[in-house]
Design goal:
This protein is mainly alpha-helical. The chain contains 26 helices and four strands.
Length: about 550
Amino acid sequence: MEIDEEFRSLVALGPSEAANKLRGNPQELAKFTSQLLWLTCPYGDSAHDPVALETLFGGHPFRTWILWLCTSPTPAEVPDEYIKRAQEAYGAKSHVCGRIWGKGYVAYRCRTCGMSPCSAICHECFEKGPHRNHNFLMYRSVAGGCCDCGDPGAWKPSGFCSDHKGPAEAFHLPLPVPELLSAFTTVQVLVGHVAGALAYHYESSERHADEHLLADLPELVSSALTLLQNLCMAGDVYRRIVCAAVLEDVGVCNPELRGHPAAATGSWASPAATSAGGAGGSAMEVASPTGEEGGEQGGQLLESLMLSGTYLSSEVSTLFLQLLFDFDFKKRFTRVFIRQYRQFMRTILRLHEHREIPTRMVDISVQLFSNSLLTVQMIREERLLHTLFRNVLLLVDEQAPLDARAGSEELREGAARALNCEHVIWTKRSYWPIANDLVNILSHRAVVEEFLGSVELVEEWLVVIRGFQGLDGHVRETSGHVEQESRHWTAPFFIELELVMEQLALIDSGLKDLFGAESQGEGEGGASEELLTEAGAAAADAADAGAGGGG
């Protein structure tokens, strides 16, 4: 990459003076930041002389430059002090814990307070909470998670600890416009560069064995992700700026700036996408969204990050968890997550030997589907339950012999499918993330109402469970003595338990709650008896139709 004289003259000023000069011109700021990142944090076939670069930038790492460019300190401040001051002055004063823990951390689940079976809180919040005589358990985290204390979508307010009394109301940043635009512009270019670097890394990894997907991210890319994580951890102000940058929408921070020409830099992908030799190629193509979302649809940047996130690296997964504490971001993120659900499952199937991989996916999905209102909205608008049922059927296709790959259509027509219970998909329980999401989703009474009120959804679910009837057939051995009993029965046992019985129990429990509420005169907004009867009749018809082939 050619280094022009204007760029050299700005670099010669140093991070502080260069930032002061660029702050009033977002387009020039975006151009400078993009070239800075491409020189100091390159990827692809680009190579630069490290000694020459260190001399050029005066020994300042790219992290120092980015912090000066995305903040507006006074002459007596440094960037970290400005970030702290901005949080104190403009932050939403949120009271959600949000602590993120890693593998091996001892956390708590409380069945009395948790809104779903996957809700959890950290040790400190448990000790400070009102959980005496509650039904709780202590567990050691397999791959990490985050604390739900203070989040009413995941934890009952009656169970909040003394430090976390719930989130603040939705807020917009009252930062002065020049400060907000310079922060948004710099962070958006940084996020775009990281997205391009991740896309290139994983496209290159796809050319090698599956285990290569577990290789550590390039050091500079990992450092850039750490910088974004640190900005999120600084508080609501910079977390929201990062969210707005990922969504390519400065209006998330300030609605009055939506469509502002200074915020439409459009430069996040320019050097990365064009210089990386096709980093956005076939392996990273984005599925076209279905349906119209109006102002809630995320842009290309979110979709690019999500595709890289489907490889479930710890760094990207941690960044997602931090951003999901912003509810505006969570709504848009959830849509893209559902569309890329199959990609997540492909990664899990390819890396089935690594237990922490599916856990990272569940750590994300539990944050999305613990909110009842959002979950129902996604069922209606993004066909969430259809996506989960379809992914179960795709697992059946994956383990079937090559001459039976059309099995999903056969299932829809009522034909029986034989499962190979010794296949690694079932023995390694690769279906566990889907089963866990179904449990989390169906634990909401409103979801059970939505499910039972839809004949189509009931029929789709019956297609799935019919495929798991008559598992693991046995033939009595009469010609000789069996010295050691086979242990192959364990896989079919867990299949039926987790993919059939748990969902059936939740639906049964939800149905009893619905009819119980209606009988007590609380039926406003409840499922109508006619719809439930219609769904029940359809279920009976479908069950009768498949009785001969289900086993």
